[in-house]
UniProtKB/TrEMBL annotation:
Belongs to the aldo/keto reductase family. It comes from Oryctolagus cuniculus. This is NADP-dependent oxidoreductase domain-containing protein. Residues 19-300 form the NADP-dependent oxidoreductase domain. The record marks K84 as: Lowers pKa of active site Tyr.
Length: 314
């Protein structure tokens, strides 16, 4: 880790800030919240902003970034912006148009990181999750390696500085890594990761291949019924995390975020509350001793908050 900028090197020579600001929000949250909170996050010191075509807020997030550049708070090169290729754009000829659509909304010339959101291809079209008359998801048959080749072309064209993946398992990563004629390997794999699902095997594999693991839902989850199993336990109410928070005089959220940082995981923190956004940046002000890390490792119970019902049966 580069302590001055709190960032780590990616395999292609670029650097990613270890703490990122997540911008996903349930549909009922007004889009103006993304604008407002991204500005607060940049003011608080966040330099890594994570969004996606799926989140339907790139216009607002882009406006927040551009307004902070116009004010002189940051330069474009200070900001590390991530966007994601949605599942309906997996056909090779749709990959670049998908990225260009995001860039148009953002009104930016490039993204710092472009990642394949899920390894599952869906039928192209306007619908985010296309379904048939029985409400069944309509999948598309696309070779993930062909999608990856189109991602490589986006990097060559300068539209994305780095390219990676999200929600890939080891087997899916290996399909790309073992692809004949591979030009760029994925710099990262963004997955659900928190003390209840610590992804230790996947983390070990990614580290062995020089792939950075990026954690989303690091604080548990927003618990939106569409995506999340409502009977799942609330991570930040865990008594063990609570006891460590008391011990270190920090919030349970900071304990969960710091845990990832010390494992070599890049972590996304999502909040639309000014107080919490400012609090999350305190992740760099303390360290968890090895014994506390071991205790947190012991919380793993393979609880997955994001169930992705729509891709069942893929």
């Amino acid at each position: 880790m580069d302590p001055k900028y709190q960032r780590v090197a990616l395999s292609d020579g670029h650097f990613i800030p270890v703490l990122g600001f997540g911008t996903y929000a349930p549909e009922e949250v007004p889009k103006s919240k993304a604008l407002e909170s991204t500005k607060i996050a940049i003011d608080a010191g966040f330099r890594h902003i994570d969004s996606a075509y799926l989140y339907n807020n790139e216009e607002e997030v882009g406006l927040a970034i551009r307004s902070k550049i116009a004010e002189g708070t940051v330069k474009r090169e200070d900001i590390f912006y991530t966007s994601k290729l949605w599942c309906t754009f997996h056909r090779p000829e749709l990959v670049r148009p998908g990225l260009e659509e995001s860039l148009k909304k953002l009104q930016l010339d490039y993204v710092d990181l472009y990642i394949i959101h899920f390894p599952t291809a869906l039928k192209p079209g306007e619908e985010i999750i296309p379904t048939d008359e029985h409400g069944k998801t309509i999948f598309d048959t696309v070779d993930i390696c062909a999608t990856w080749e189109a991602m490589e072309k986006c990097k060559d064209a300068g539209l994305a500085k780095s390219i990676g993946v999200s929600n890939f398992n080891r087997r899916q990563l290996e399909m790309i890594l073992n692809k004949p004629g591979l030009k760029y390997k994925p710099v990262c794999n963004q997955v659900e990761c928190h003390p209840y699902l610590n992804q230790s095997k996947l983390l070990e594999f990614c580290k062995s291949k020089g792939i950075v693991l990026v954690a989303y839902s690091a604080l548990g989850s927003h618990r939106e019924p569409k995506w999340v199993d409502q009977s799942s336990p609330v991570l930040l109410e865990d008594p063990v995390i609570g006891a460590l928070a008391k011990k270190h005089k920090r919030s349970p959220a900071l304990i969960a975020l710091r845990y990832q940082l010390q494992r070599g995981v890049v972590v996304l923190a999502k909040s639309f509350t000014e107080k919490r956004i400012k609090e999350n940046i305190q992740i760099f002000e303390f360290t968890l001793p090895p014994d506390d890390m071991k205790v947190l490792d012991g919380l793993n119970r393979n609880v997955r908050y994001i169930t992705d019902e729509y891709i069942k049966g893929y």
